[in-house]
Amino acid sequence: MNVDGKKYRTIWLAADGASVEIIDQTKFPYAFEIVKLHTMEDAAHAIRVMQVRGAPLIGATAAYGVALAMRADPSDDALHAACFALLETRPTAVNLHWALDRARKTLIQVAPEIRTEAAFTLANDICDEDIAINMAIGMHGMELIAAIARTKREGEPVNILTHCNAGWLATVDWGTATAPVYMSHDSDIPVHVWVDETRPRNQGAFLTAWELGHHGVPHTVIVDNAGGHLMQHGEVDIVITGTDRTTATGDVCNKIGTYLKALAAKDNNVPFFVALPSPTIDFSLSDGVREIPIEERGGNEVSQITGRTEGGSIETINIVADGSAVGNPAFDVTPARLVTGLITERGVLDANRQSIANAFPERVKVSA
Protein backbone atom coordinates (compact mmCIF):
# COMPACT_ATOMS: atom_id res chain seq x y z
CA MET A 1 0.00 0.00 0.00
CA ASN A 2 0.98 3.65 -0.23
CA VAL A 3 2.86 5.64 2.37
CA ASP A 4 3.04 9.15 0.96
CA GLY A 5 3.22 7.76 -2.55
CA LYS A 6 5.75 4.98 -1.87
CA LYS A 7 4.59 1.37 -1.91
CA TYR A 8 5.32 -0.88 1.07
CA ARG A 9 4.58 -4.31 2.39
CA THR A 10 4.60 -4.84 6.14
CA ILE A 11 7.33 -7.51 5.98
CA TRP A 12 9.93 -8.36 3.35
CA LEU A 13 13.26 -10.09 2.80
CA ALA A 14 16.09 -7.60 3.30
CA ALA A 15 18.50 -6.75 0.52
CA ASP A 16 21.20 -8.85 2.19
CA GLY A 17 19.06 -11.96 1.61
CA ALA A 18 19.79 -13.18 5.14
CA SER A 19 17.56 -11.01 7.32
CA VAL A 20 13.98 -9.75 7.29
CA GLU A 21 12.65 -6.22 7.59
CA ILE A 22 9.40 -5.10 9.21
CA ILE A 23 7.60 -1.84 9.91
CA ASP A 24 7.72 -1.32 13.68
CA GLN A 25 4.07 -0.78 14.56
CA THR A 26 4.80 0.17 18.17
CA LYS A 27 6.12 3.50 16.87
CA PHE A 28 2.88 4.60 15.21
CA PRO A 29 1.47 7.14 14.72
CA TYR A 30 4.45 9.29 15.70
CA ALA A 31 7.19 7.67 13.65
CA PHE A 32 7.65 5.36 10.66
CA GLU A 33 10.55 3.06 11.44
CA ILE A 34 11.86 -0.11 9.83
CA VAL A 35 13.40 -2.82 12.00
CA LYS A 36 15.62 -5.66 10.82
CA LEU A 37 15.12 -9.20 12.17
CA HIS A 38 18.32 -11.25 12.19
CA THR A 39 17.28 -14.27 14.25
CA MET A 40 14.28 -16.38 15.19
CA GLU A 41 14.41 -14.74 18.60
CA ASP A 42 14.06 -11.34 16.92
CA ALA A 43 10.96 -12.56 15.11
CA ALA A 44 9.47 -13.99 18.30
CA HIS A 45 10.12 -10.71 20.11
CA ALA A 46 8.50 -8.73 17.29
CA ILE A 47 5.34 -10.84 17.58
CA ARG A 48 5.27 -10.82 21.37
CA VAL A 49 5.65 -7.04 21.85
CA MET A 50 3.42 -6.32 18.84
CA GLN A 51 5.97 -4.72 16.54
CA VAL A 52 3.96 -6.85 14.13
CA ARG A 53 0.30 -7.64 14.88
CA GLY A 54 -2.81 -8.82 13.12
CA ALA A 55 -3.41 -12.51 12.50
CA PRO A 56 -2.16 -12.74 8.88
CA LEU A 57 1.00 -10.72 9.56
CA ILE A 58 1.74 -12.72 12.71
CA GLY A 59 1.60 -15.88 10.60
CA ALA A 60 3.89 -14.43 7.94
CA THR A 61 6.37 -13.25 10.56
CA ALA A 62 6.39 -16.67 12.19
CA ALA A 63 7.17 -18.27 8.83
CA TYR A 64 10.11 -15.92 8.38
CA GLY A 65 11.12 -16.66 11.98
CA VAL A 66 11.40 -20.35 11.09
CA ALA A 67 13.50 -19.44 8.06
CA LEU A 68 15.86 -17.38 10.22
CA ALA A 69 16.14 -20.32 12.61
CA MET A 70 17.00 -22.66 9.73
CA ARG A 71 19.71 -20.25 8.57
CA ALA A 72 21.32 -20.63 12.01
CA ASP A 73 20.73 -24.39 12.37
CA PRO A 74 18.79 -26.44 9.80
CA SER A 75 18.53 -29.57 11.96
CA ASP A 76 15.26 -31.32 12.85
CA ASP A 77 15.71 -30.41 16.51
CA ALA A 78 16.15 -26.74 15.65
CA LEU A 79 13.06 -26.81 13.45
CA HIS A 80 10.89 -28.23 16.22
CA ALA A 81 12.38 -25.85 18.79
CA ALA A 82 11.75 -22.81 16.59
CA CYS A 83 8.14 -23.78 15.93
CA PHE A 84 7.55 -24.31 19.65
CA ALA A 85 9.14 -21.00 20.64
CA LEU A 86 7.20 -19.02 18.04
CA LEU A 87 3.94 -20.74 18.95
CA GLU A 88 4.28 -19.49 22.52
CA THR A 89 4.34 -15.82 21.51
CA ARG A 90 0.56 -15.19 21.06
CA PRO A 91 -2.23 -17.70 21.92
CA THR A 92 -5.31 -16.40 20.08
CA ALA A 93 -4.49 -15.81 16.39
CA VAL A 94 -4.91 -19.10 14.54
CA ASN A 95 -2.78 -17.93 11.59
CA LEU A 96 0.24 -18.36 13.84
CA HIS A 97 -0.62 -22.03 14.39
CA TRP A 98 -1.44 -22.47 10.70
CA ALA A 99 1.82 -20.99 9.42
CA LEU A 100 4.00 -22.92 11.87
CA ASP A 101 2.20 -26.18 11.17
CA ARG A 102 2.68 -25.64 7.44
CA ALA A 103 6.35 -24.80 7.93
CA ARG A 104 7.02 -27.82 10.11
CA LYS A 105 5.23 -30.29 7.82
CA THR A 106 6.90 -28.87 4.71
CA LEU A 107 10.44 -28.49 5.99
CA ILE A 108 10.70 -31.79 7.86
CA GLN A 109 10.53 -33.47 4.44
CA VAL A 110 13.40 -31.36 3.07
CA ALA A 111 17.05 -32.34 3.50
CA PRO A 112 18.82 -30.10 6.06
CA GLU A 113 21.39 -28.91 3.51
CA ILE A 114 18.65 -27.20 1.43
CA ARG A 115 16.22 -26.49 4.26
CA THR A 116 17.18 -22.82 4.69
CA GLU A 117 16.43 -21.96 1.07
CA ALA A 118 13.17 -23.91 1.24
CA ALA A 119 12.16 -22.10 4.43
CA PHE A 120 12.67 -18.65 2.94
CA THR A 121 10.82 -19.71 -0.20
CA LEU A 122 7.91 -20.92 1.92
CA ALA A 123 7.79 -17.66 3.88
CA ASN A 124 7.79 -15.67 0.64
CA ASP A 125 5.00 -17.87 -0.71
CA ILE A 126 2.90 -17.32 2.44
CA CYS A 127 3.30 -13.57 2.00
CA ASP A 128 2.35 -13.65 -1.69
CA GLU A 129 -0.65 -15.86 -0.93
CA ASP A 130 -1.81 -13.45 1.77
CA ILE A 131 -1.76 -10.55 -0.68
CA ALA A 132 -3.73 -12.51 -3.28
CA ILE A 133 -6.29 -13.58 -0.67
CA ASN A 134 -6.74 -10.03 0.59
CA MET A 135 -7.19 -8.69 -2.93
CA ALA A 136 -9.97 -11.23 -3.49
CA ILE A 137 -11.57 -10.27 -0.15
CA GLY A 138 -11.41 -6.66 -1.28
CA MET A 139 -13.20 -7.38 -4.55
CA HIS A 140 -16.01 -9.31 -2.86
CA GLY A 141 -16.39 -6.71 -0.13
CA MET A 142 -16.39 -3.87 -2.63
CA GLU A 143 -19.53 -5.36 -4.20
CA LEU A 144 -21.31 -4.94 -0.83
CA ILE A 145 -20.19 -1.32 -0.56
CA ALA A 146 -21.11 -0.60 -4.18
CA ALA A 147 -24.62 -1.98 -3.60
CA ILE A 148 -25.09 0.43 -0.69
CA ALA A 149 -23.64 3.29 -2.75
CA ARG A 150 -26.31 2.77 -5.39
CA THR A 151 -28.97 3.61 -2.78
CA LYS A 152 -27.28 6.92 -1.91
CA ARG A 153 -27.60 10.38 -3.41
CA GLU A 154 -24.84 11.27 -5.85
CA GLY A 155 -21.63 12.02 -3.97
CA GLU A 156 -22.99 10.84 -0.62
CA PRO A 157 -20.48 8.47 0.99
CA VAL A 158 -21.07 4.98 2.28
CA ASN A 159 -20.35 5.18 6.02
CA ILE A 160 -18.35 2.16 7.20
CA LEU A 161 -17.54 1.45 10.84
CA THR A 162 -14.53 -0.70 11.69
CA HIS A 163 -12.95 -1.81 14.95
CA CYS A 164 -9.27 -2.25 15.76
CA ASN A 165 -6.88 -2.48 12.81
CA ALA A 166 -7.66 -5.02 10.11
CA GLY A 167 -5.85 -2.89 7.57
CA TRP A 168 -2.77 -3.49 5.49
CA LEU A 169 -0.69 -3.06 8.65
CA ALA A 170 -2.35 -6.22 10.03
CA THR A 171 -1.56 -8.25 6.92
CA VAL A 172 1.22 -8.34 4.34
CA ASP A 173 -0.71 -5.90 2.13
CA TRP A 174 -4.24 -4.53 1.47
CA GLY A 175 -5.72 -5.67 4.78
CA THR A 176 -8.86 -7.70 5.36
CA ALA A 177 -11.59 -5.35 6.60
CA THR A 178 -9.97 -2.40 4.82
CA ALA A 179 -9.35 -4.10 1.48
CA PRO A 180 -12.96 -3.40 0.35
CA VAL A 181 -12.56 0.19 1.57
CA TYR A 182 -9.35 0.80 -0.37
CA MET A 183 -10.69 -0.80 -3.53
CA SER A 184 -13.93 1.20 -3.30
CA HIS A 185 -12.00 4.43 -2.73
CA ASP A 186 -9.62 3.68 -5.61
CA SER A 187 -12.66 2.93 -7.82
CA ASP A 188 -14.19 6.34 -7.04
CA ILE A 189 -16.97 4.97 -4.85
CA PRO A 190 -17.40 7.62 -2.11
CA VAL A 191 -16.63 6.13 1.30
CA HIS A 192 -16.13 7.43 4.82
CA VAL A 193 -14.79 5.29 7.66
CA TRP A 194 -15.70 5.59 11.32
CA VAL A 195 -12.52 4.46 13.07
CA ASP A 196 -12.96 3.10 16.60
CA GLU A 197 -10.01 4.20 18.72
CA THR A 198 -9.84 0.61 20.07
CA ARG A 199 -8.63 0.81 23.63
CA PRO A 200 -6.40 -0.12 25.28
CA ARG A 201 -3.70 -0.17 22.58
CA ASN A 202 -5.51 2.31 20.32
CA GLN A 203 -4.91 0.33 17.13
CA GLY A 204 -7.71 2.23 15.43
CA ALA A 205 -6.55 5.72 16.40
CA PHE A 206 -2.87 4.88 15.94
CA LEU A 207 -2.84 2.46 13.01
CA THR A 208 -6.09 2.43 11.02
CA ALA A 209 -6.33 6.23 11.01
CA TRP A 210 -2.66 6.50 10.04
CA GLU A 211 -2.92 4.18 7.06
CA LEU A 212 -6.27 5.55 5.85
CA GLY A 213 -4.89 9.07 6.06
CA HIS A 214 -1.74 8.24 4.12
CA HIS A 215 -3.87 6.59 1.41
CA GLY A 216 -6.26 9.53 1.25
CA VAL A 217 -9.41 7.77 2.52
CA PRO A 218 -11.87 10.08 4.38
CA HIS A 219 -12.24 8.95 7.98
CA THR A 220 -13.15 10.08 11.49
CA VAL A 221 -11.73 8.65 14.73
CA ILE A 222 -14.36 8.00 17.41
CA VAL A 223 -14.29 6.65 20.94
CA ASP A 224 -15.13 2.97 21.21
CA ASN A 225 -18.51 3.62 22.83
CA ALA A 226 -19.78 5.96 20.10
CA GLY A 227 -20.63 3.27 17.53
CA GLY A 228 -24.05 2.40 18.94
CA HIS A 229 -25.05 6.06 19.06
CA LEU A 230 -24.06 6.55 15.41
CA MET A 231 -26.03 3.47 14.40
CA GLN A 232 -29.13 4.72 16.20
CA HIS A 233 -28.97 7.93 14.18
CA GLY A 234 -28.49 6.25 10.80
CA GLU A 235 -24.88 7.31 10.40
CA VAL A 236 -23.47 3.81 9.87
CA ASP A 237 -24.36 1.90 6.69
CA ILE A 238 -22.24 -1.18 7.30
CA VAL A 239 -19.83 -2.58 9.89
CA ILE A 240 -16.78 -4.46 8.63
CA THR A 241 -14.26 -5.90 11.07
CA GLY A 242 -11.47 -8.43 10.89
CA THR A 243 -10.96 -11.54 12.98
CA ASP A 244 -8.10 -13.43 14.61
CA ARG A 245 -9.91 -16.76 14.70
CA THR A 246 -13.24 -17.97 13.32
CA THR A 247 -14.80 -21.31 14.18
CA ALA A 248 -16.18 -23.86 11.71
CA THR A 249 -19.65 -22.66 12.76
CA GLY A 250 -19.01 -18.96 12.09
CA ASP A 251 -18.30 -17.62 15.59
CA VAL A 252 -15.82 -14.76 15.28
CA CYS A 253 -13.02 -13.85 17.69
CA ASN A 254 -11.74 -10.32 17.27
CA LYS A 255 -10.36 -7.42 19.29
CA ILE A 256 -12.15 -6.75 22.56
CA GLY A 257 -15.25 -4.63 21.95
CA THR A 258 -16.25 -6.25 18.66
CA TYR A 259 -19.08 -8.19 20.34
CA LEU A 260 -20.64 -4.95 21.58
CA LYS A 261 -20.54 -3.50 18.05
CA ALA A 262 -22.29 -6.59 16.73
CA LEU A 263 -25.03 -6.28 19.36
CA ALA A 264 -25.58 -2.62 18.49
CA ALA A 265 -25.63 -3.44 14.78
CA LYS A 266 -28.23 -6.16 15.33
CA ASP A 267 -30.45 -3.83 17.33
CA ASN A 268 -30.29 -1.15 14.63
CA ASN A 269 -30.53 -3.39 11.54
CA VAL A 270 -27.03 -2.44 10.40
CA PRO A 271 -25.29 -5.23 8.45
CA PHE A 272 -22.32 -6.63 10.36
CA PHE A 273 -19.70 -8.29 8.15
CA VAL A 274 -16.38 -9.90 9.02
CA ALA A 275 -13.55 -10.02 6.49
CA LEU A 276 -11.21 -12.97 6.84
CA PRO A 277 -8.69 -15.06 4.92
CA SER A 278 -9.41 -18.78 5.03
CA PRO A 279 -6.30 -19.57 7.17
CA THR A 280 -8.08 -17.69 9.97
CA ILE A 281 -10.84 -20.34 10.04
CA ASP A 282 -10.19 -22.98 12.70
CA PHE A 283 -12.12 -26.03 11.57
CA SER A 284 -11.31 -27.86 14.80
CA LEU A 285 -13.54 -25.53 16.85
CA SER A 286 -17.33 -25.29 16.99
CA ASP A 287 -18.08 -23.06 19.99
CA GLY A 288 -16.08 -19.86 19.98
CA VAL A 289 -17.09 -18.65 23.42
CA ARG A 290 -16.12 -21.90 25.10
CA GLU A 291 -13.20 -23.06 22.99
CA ILE A 292 -11.16 -20.07 21.76
CA PRO A 293 -8.35 -19.14 24.17
CA ILE A 294 -8.51 -15.44 25.01
CA GLU A 295 -5.18 -13.72 25.53
CA GLU A 296 -4.90 -11.73 28.77
CA ARG A 297 -2.33 -9.00 28.23
CA GLY A 298 -0.46 -6.91 30.77
CA GLY A 299 -2.37 -4.44 32.88
CA ASN A 300 0.00 -1.61 32.01
CA GLU A 301 -1.67 -1.41 28.58
CA VAL A 302 -4.81 -0.22 30.38
CA SER A 303 -3.28 1.76 33.23
CA GLN A 304 -0.82 3.67 31.06
CA ILE A 305 -1.04 5.54 27.77
CA THR A 306 1.63 6.91 25.48
CA GLY A 307 1.26 10.12 23.54
CA ARG A 308 3.06 13.10 22.09
CA THR A 309 3.21 16.29 24.10
CA GLU A 310 2.78 19.77 22.63
CA GLY A 311 6.54 20.05 22.82
CA GLY A 312 6.95 17.02 20.57
CA SER A 313 8.30 14.52 23.10
CA ILE A 314 6.79 11.04 23.44
CA GLU A 315 5.77 10.26 27.01
CA THR A 316 3.96 7.48 28.86
CA ILE A 317 1.68 8.45 31.74
CA ASN A 318 -0.51 6.62 34.27
CA ILE A 319 -4.27 7.09 33.88
CA VAL A 320 -5.74 4.68 36.47
CA ALA A 321 -6.18 5.34 40.17
CA ASP A 322 -3.31 4.02 42.27
CA GLY A 323 -4.00 0.60 43.79
CA SER A 324 -6.78 -0.36 41.34
CA ALA A 325 -6.65 -3.85 39.86
CA VAL A 326 -6.63 -3.92 36.06
CA GLY A 327 -7.97 -6.63 33.71
CA ASN A 328 -7.00 -6.73 30.05
CA PRO A 329 -8.66 -9.46 27.94
CA ALA A 330 -7.44 -8.74 24.41
CA PHE A 331 -10.28 -10.37 22.45
CA ASP A 332 -13.94 -11.30 22.61
CA VAL A 333 -16.15 -13.66 20.62
CA THR A 334 -19.11 -12.60 18.49
CA PRO A 335 -21.55 -15.50 18.02
CA ALA A 336 -22.41 -16.42 14.45
CA ARG A 337 -26.06 -15.41 14.97
CA LEU A 338 -24.93 -11.76 15.06
CA VAL A 339 -22.80 -11.96 11.89
CA THR A 340 -24.51 -10.96 8.63
CA GLY A 341 -21.81 -12.57 6.52
CA LEU A 342 -18.16 -13.59 6.22
CA ILE A 343 -16.19 -11.92 3.42
CA THR A 344 -13.63 -14.49 2.25
CA GLU A 345 -11.45 -14.95 -0.80
CA ARG A 346 -14.10 -17.32 -2.16
CA GLY A 347 -17.02 -14.96 -1.73
CA VAL A 348 -19.38 -13.73 0.95
CA LEU A 349 -20.55 -16.65 3.09
CA ASP A 350 -23.30 -17.14 5.61
CA ALA A 351 -21.87 -17.54 9.10
CA ASN A 352 -22.74 -21.20 9.55
CA ARG A 353 -21.03 -24.58 9.29
CA GLN A 354 -22.56 -25.64 5.99
CA SER A 355 -21.75 -22.46 4.10
CA ILE A 356 -18.16 -22.42 5.35
CA ALA A 357 -17.64 -26.12 4.62
CA ASN A 358 -19.06 -25.75 1.11
CA ALA A 359 -16.63 -22.92 0.38
CA PHE A 360 -13.55 -24.70 1.76
CA PRO A 361 -14.14 -28.46 1.43
CA GLU A 362 -10.41 -29.22 1.29
CA ARG A 363 -9.90 -27.63 4.72
CA VAL A 364 -12.70 -29.68 6.23
CA LYS A 365 -11.13 -32.91 4.99
CA VAL A 366 -7.74 -31.97 6.40
CA SER A 367 -9.13 -31.13 9.82
CA ALA A 368 -11.44 -34.16 10.03
Characteristic terms for this protein:
single chain, 368 residues, alpha/beta, Four Helix Bundle (Hemerythrin (Met), subunit A), Rossmann fold, 2 domains, seven-stranded mixed β-sheet, four-stranded mixed β-sheet, 13 helices, 18 strands, globular
Characterize the largest beta sheet: strand count, sense, and whether it forms a barrel. Answer: 7 strands, mixed
Please tell me what the overall shape is: globular
End-to-end CA span:
37 Å
* Class by SSE composition: alpha/beta
Q: What is the CATH third-level topology name of the largest domain?
A: Rossmann fold
- Helix proportion: 25-40%
Strand content: 15-25%
Keywords: Amino-acid biosynthesis, Isomerase, Methionine biosynthesis
Catalytic activity: 5-(methylsulfanyl)-alpha-D-ribose 1-phosphate = 5-(methylsulfanyl)-D-ribulose 1-phosphate
EC number: 5.3.1.23
Family: Belongs to the EIF-2B alpha/beta/delta subunits family. MtnA subfamily.
What this model shows, in words?
- With 368 residues, the chain is of the alpha/beta class.
- It has two domains: 2-128, Four Helix Bundle (Hemerythrin (Met), subunit A) (Up-down Bundle); 136-367, Translation initiation factor eif-2b, domain 2 (Rossmann fold), CATH 3.40.50.
- Helices cover 40% and strands 18% of the residues.
- The strands form five sheets. A seven-stranded mixed sheet has the order 8-7-6-9-12-17-18, with helices on both faces. The chain has a four-stranded mixed sheet with strand order 13-10-11-16, with helices on one face.
- α6 (179-186) links the parallel β6 (158-162) and β7 (191-196).
- α2 (55-72) runs antiparallel to α3 (76-87).
- The longest helix has 35 residues, at 115-149.
- The chain is globular and about 65 Å long.
- The relative contact order is 0.11.
